[in-house]
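> example.struct
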């Protein structure tokens, strides 16, 4: 047997070595190192990695021994999740049903689907709520998985899931460029259609050119899938095909769905034809919430408030309750109001958005301004008691999460932290517990957990937690030196890295301000920073210097537009150059119409953060609408200075 390392540093190194072996899938190395990790505070992680690596071959008794040894821990429930997925894959429904009631997280959609399959195998008919859960989970998944596909097939066989749902899944998959997933969904209803689906995926125009009949629902749906495929590549061409040939051969629901898809992909261009395509929809209820969202955006670009109102009203409750659609519905009511009752209804919509003290995001702020109320920090909550702080300090799961992060196991630490704050029991921690946990993370300067945990409180908000200002002297000094608003810098950093100085994105952006190497080199040359090498991006002061300098260059080149500069920082300057073309828009309308989901969310959050930081740094009420301004094309003949930005 290997001897245990004598000192703490060596024992920590064992954990890091095991983490790396786990990533490589090195089973032998994990088994050899596990004895050296015994007794370490992070032993549950070491034991989890070792057993997870060989779970396919492990005996059920080994799994049960692990679950007993680490009972009550995150790692216990994490392994249970993995084991249940394996039991579902094996169709060992008896073992699955025995273990599933002990699964605490309940956040795995595939396991929820497996649970329905297990009940069906035991002769138990699922209730309407379980069937609806499978439907929602399956439709929401962008990638194929065994659990929900299998459950959907069983429910279809028993008559509980109609064929229309299967083809709807195929439509969503085809639009997302997942032809294999579309093929799997169609096979549940029409297994003989595989060759035609392959033909559609290869060339939708060729498939459509060879078909002139749609006598059966299968033929209609295959034509619909081909038109969806074409719409993702050439929406105007799909519109012409639908108008000239296929509209008369398809039913109302299929036509409406297709006009919705064509409208969406036209809006993504963005093209001013999108609103016209959406206007061909004769019944909003035939569209998904995703298509309705794009119908709203296209209507906003054209100022068609009646179409905005109709589309939001057609959304399902979960989507309609989103802050964006609550706000735009109230704006539409306000724009269309002709008498006091209608104006009161609009005001009630804005009031609904501002009702939660702990929720003051982008649209909540705009609602406050619509109500002519100042945007100010909410009252501070009652201070934490020493007992509340002590409970957080003594919490073993939170402590283990912070230790993992401190050792460099950030991913593991974040997952464990989120488990204890959000998932270990239904609803997660109570609000005062969350407040204390956030306070603990702040005290340890683990800013991402501090912010994210603090944001979960809804009845109150501590803005000191939610909007911390680490490295304040360096940020304010650099911002002042180049004439940049420090609040804007902080708003961007909070969204980019949550103040994690060693953050690194999947595409190679680094540090506090998530600077890309090529952008850093260009900016260094532009500002005359001699001797710069990419490794310096990870130096805090250099990262701030490069990041703020690029942001200032973008802001100047986009004529001082905060939303355009933020979009350029996230998506590169070329895209917002194109996105600004079209009508002159209210900044909020422009932000809502950004085609990229990530960039749309990013711009909203950076601007909302900026307003909150400005309030904290100045102590004065702020305006989001003023910072958003208006966004539109350059004046005729005006040169675009942003063309030089990389």
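> example.seq
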């Amino acid at each position: 047997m290997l001897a245990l390392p004598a000192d703490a540093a060596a024992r920590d190194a064992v954990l890091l070595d095991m983490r790396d072996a786990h990533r490589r899938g090195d089973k032998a190395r994990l088994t050899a190192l596990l004895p050296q990790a015994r007794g370490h505070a992070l032993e549950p992680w070491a034991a989890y990695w070792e057993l997870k690596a060989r779970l396919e071959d492990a005996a059920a008794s080994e799994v049960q021994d692990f679950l007993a040894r680490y009972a009550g821990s995150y790692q216990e429930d994490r392994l249970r999740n993995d084991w249940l997925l394996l039991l579902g894959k094996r169709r060992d429904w008896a073992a699955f049903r025995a273990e599933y009631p002990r699964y605490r997280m309940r956040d795995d959609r595939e396991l929820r689907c497996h649970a329905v399959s297990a009940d069906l195998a035991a002769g138990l008919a699922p209730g309407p709520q379980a069937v609806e859960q499978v439907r929602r989970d399956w439709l929401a998944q962008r990638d194929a998985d065994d659990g929900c596909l299998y459950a959907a097939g069983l429910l279809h066989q028993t008559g509980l899931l109609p064929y229309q749902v299967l083809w709807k899944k195929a439509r969503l998959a085809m639009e997302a460029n997942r032809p294999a997933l579309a093929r799997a969904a169609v096979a549940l209803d029409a297994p003989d259609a595989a060759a035609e689906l392959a033909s559609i995926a290869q060339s939708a125009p060729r498939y459509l050119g060879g078909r002139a009949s749609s006598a059966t629902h299968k033929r209609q749906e295959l034509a619909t899938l081909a038109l969806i495929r074409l719409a993702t590549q050439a929406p105007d061409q799909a519109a012409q095909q639908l108008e000239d040939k296929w509209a008369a051969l398809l039913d109302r629901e299929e036509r409406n769905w297709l006009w919705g898809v064509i409208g969406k992909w036209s809006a993504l261009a963005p093209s001013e034809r999108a609103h016209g395509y959406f206007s061909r929809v004769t019944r909003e209820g035939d569209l998904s919430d995703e298509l309705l969202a794009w119908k709203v955006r296209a209507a906003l670009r054209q100022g068609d408030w009646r179409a905005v109102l109709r589309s939001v009203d057609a959304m399902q409750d979960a989507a309609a309750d989103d802050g964006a659609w609550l706000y735009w519905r109230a704006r539409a009511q306000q724009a269309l109001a002709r008498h006091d009752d209608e104006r009161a209804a609009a005001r009630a919509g804005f009031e609904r958005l501002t009702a939660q003290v702990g929720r003051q995001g982008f649209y909540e702020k705009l609602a406050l301004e619509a109500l002519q109320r100042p945007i100010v920090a909410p009252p501070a909550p009652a201070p934490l008691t020493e007992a509340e702080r002590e409970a957080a300090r003594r919490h073993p799961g939170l402590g283990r999460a912070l230790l993992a992060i401190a050792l460099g196991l950030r991913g593991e630490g974040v997952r464990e932290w989120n488990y204890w704050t959000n998932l270990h029991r239904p609803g997660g921690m109570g609000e005062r517990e969350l407040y204390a946990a956030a306070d603990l993370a702040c005290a340890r300067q683990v800013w991402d957990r501090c912010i994210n945990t603090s944001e979960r409180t809804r009845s109150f908000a501590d803005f000191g937690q939610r909007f911390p200002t680490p490295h304040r002297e360096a940020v304010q000094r650099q911002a002042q030196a180049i004439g940049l608003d420090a609040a804007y810098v902080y708003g961007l950093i909070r969204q980019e890295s949550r103040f994690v100085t060693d953050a690194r994105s999947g595409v190679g952006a680094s540090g506090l301000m998530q600077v890309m190497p090529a952008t850093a080199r260009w900016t260094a040359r532009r500002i005359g920073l001699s001797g710069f090498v990419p490794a310096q991006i990870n130096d805090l002061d250099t990262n701030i210097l490069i990041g703020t300098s690029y942001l200032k260059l973008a802001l100047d080149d986009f004529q001082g537009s905060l939303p355009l500069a933020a979009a350029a920082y996230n998506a590169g300057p070329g895209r917002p150059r194109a996105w600004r073309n079209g009508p002159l828009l209210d900044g909020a309308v422009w932000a809502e119409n950004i085609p990229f989901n990530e960039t749309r969310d990013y711009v909203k959050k950076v601007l909302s953060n900026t307003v909150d930081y400005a309030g904290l740094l100045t102590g004065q009420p702020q305006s989001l609408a003023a910072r958003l301004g208006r966004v539109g094309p350059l004046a005729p003949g005006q040169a675009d200075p942003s063309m030089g930005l990389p």
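> remarks
The mean pLDDT is 95.
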